[in-house]
Specification:
- By secondary structure, the protein is an all-alpha fold.
- It has 17 helices and no strands.
- The chain folds into two domains: 1-200, no CATH class; 211-472, no CATH class.
- The protein is globular, with a radius of gyration of 22 Å.
Length: 477
């Protein structure tokens, strides 16, 4: 099977992912104008739980499946068949569990939607196995096309349900039906073999369970770190506050989409470069982090300065409090980009234990931060806690890279980046009352000045980034 080039994968996948982000945000925007705040908060809570569960049928073994699909093409059908046999019982247990939790923990208006989420777990077992197999074979565009079609149909179906008065239950009925349709689409994809029960082997099943403990810990920590915010906010305050937070969080999720796709798409090429040329890998990693953090911080400062305008344009007046959430939350997206790059590096180095510790450390902070800051500041407290979580995680990952990969310069660069960002945020806060233009100018100007002082900005920086990108493309070919 012919593989796509790195640029081809990035271009097709990112284009469709951008369309998906627009559709998903468009659905939330419509709901924010059609539903009351409690119903909107209920939708956000249910979607958070739904998205968390979609990651779990393989119990965190996705990286292992991706590696095997990339390296063992002749065994694809056997691995895929055993993957489905492994994931399906897990999906059933998870589905029943979430249905019972929803029935006993939340109000009656959400019960039917929780059981629909439970039903959606049945096709999810096959969907997850199919997608990790395609990722291993570097067929990112195939995944993006299927997911893009799902997002489009979900948007249209939800609008139709709202027009017919279906409410949350109707929306999640559409979402569940589309999960079955996605499963069928993957089953009909020529690039994927069909699962065969006669290929299931007890030895492979035991191998999966032997690999589960560490990978599952990483998956659970990653999942809860990304989804715990809404769940805790719903329990400590209420669904109205969830709606306020979710209005800004949707923009945060959209900001994360491109770096997430880029990290997944480039993972095979990065793994090959790590194995073949550590020195070149170190230079590429340093350049990638400098580029993502530097450019990201400038963009985040501008978005933060414009937060009131952005929320005012996108949402109804009742959502205006979301601007204070976006003002802080957008900085978390910058550090999540760096975290994606470093997480990929750890997977390439088979440093799952350190990946687990990084996630555990950040989850401990997130729990402490949420329970301390939410009672004080509500949705804004969630935003601050969530933003600081990847800051801590990236710091741990960089300390690991300094020791394991002899890349101590990365840690010093990170401290310089934090100092420059602190200067930009402080300058913006000092002139906050003067308006958007002065906020943005003060924040970006202070960042650039601080970056120059600490040595982040220098001649030849763009040439270094271009050389690193060229190297990565050659390794992928």
């Amino acid at each position: 099977m012919k593989q796509q080039s790195l640029m081809g994968m990035l271009g097709s996948a990112m284009g469709l992912r951008l369309a998906m982000a627009a559709l998903n945000f468009g659905l939330f925007w419509v709901l924010s104008h059609r539903l009351d705040s409690n119903s909107l908060g209920g939708f956000s809570l249910l979607m958070n739980i739904f998205l968390l569960l979609q990651l779990l049928p393989l119990l965190g073994l996705s990286p292992a499946f991706i590696r095997r699909a990339a390296a063992e093409h002749e065994n694809i059908q056997v691995e895929l068949s055993n993957g489905v046999a492994f994931a399906l019982p897990v999906a059933v247990v998870l589905g029943v569990g979430i249905g019972v939790i929803g029935q006993t923990t939340y109000g009656a208006e959400l019960h039917a939607s929780f059981w629909l989420i439970a039903l959606a777990m049945l096709p999810t077992a096959w969907i997850q196995v199919a997608e990790v197999t395609l990722l291993g074979r570097e067929r990112m565009a195939d995944i993006a096309r299927v997911q893009g079609a799902e997002a489009f149909l979900r948007f249209g179906g939800a609008l139709l349900v709202l027009q017919l008065g279906g409410g949350l239950t109707g929306i999640f009925a559409v979402i569940t039906l589309l999960r079955f349709a996605v499963g069928l689409a993957y089953a009909l994809l020529p690039e994927l073999p069909r699962p065969r029960w006669r290929d299931c082997q007890l030895a492979i099943w035991y191998r999966h369970w032997h690999e589960v403990p560490m990978y599952l810990g990483i998956a659970l920590l990653a999942g809860f770190t990304s989804r715990l915010d809404v769940i805790v906010l719903s329990r400590l305050q209420g669904l109205h506050e969830v709606a306020i937070y979710a209005a800004a969080s949707r923009l945060y999720d959209a900001a994360l989409m491109l770096p997430t796709v880029a990290a997944l798409t480039m993972m095979p090429a990065l793994a090959r470069l790590f194995a073949s040329d550590r020195d070149q890998f170190g230079r590429l990693l340093t350049g990638a982090l400098r580029a993502s953090l530097g450019a990201g911080m400038l963009v985040a400062l501008v978005v933060s300065a414009c937060s009131e305008l952005i929320i005012g344009v996108l949402y109804a007046p009742g959502m205006s409090a979301a601007s204070d959430v976006l003002r802080w939350l957008i900085f978390g997206a910058v550090f999540m980009t760096a975290d994606q790059v470093l997480s990929t590096t750890m997977l390439a180095a088979r440093a799952q234990a350190h990946d687990f510790r990084a996630l555990a450390l950040s989850l401990v902070w997130l729990v402490i931060g949420l329970f301390c800051l939410v009672p004080l500041w509500g949705p804004r407290g969630v935003a601050i806690a969530v933003t600081l979580t990847p800051v801590i995680r990236v710091a741990y990952r960089l300390r690991w890279a300094a020791t394991a990969l002899d890349l101590g310069g990365l840690w010093r660069d990170y401290l310089r980046q934090l100092a420059a960002l602190a200067a930009g945020v402080l300058a913006m806060e000092l002139v906050w009352s003067t308006g958007i233009v002065w906020r943005a100018l003060a924040g970006c100007g202070a960042w650039l000045l601080a970056a120059a002082v600490v040595g982040l900005v220098h001649r030849g920086l763009l040439q270094d980034w271009r050389a690193g990108w060229t190297t990565l493309r050659r390794r992928q070919a």
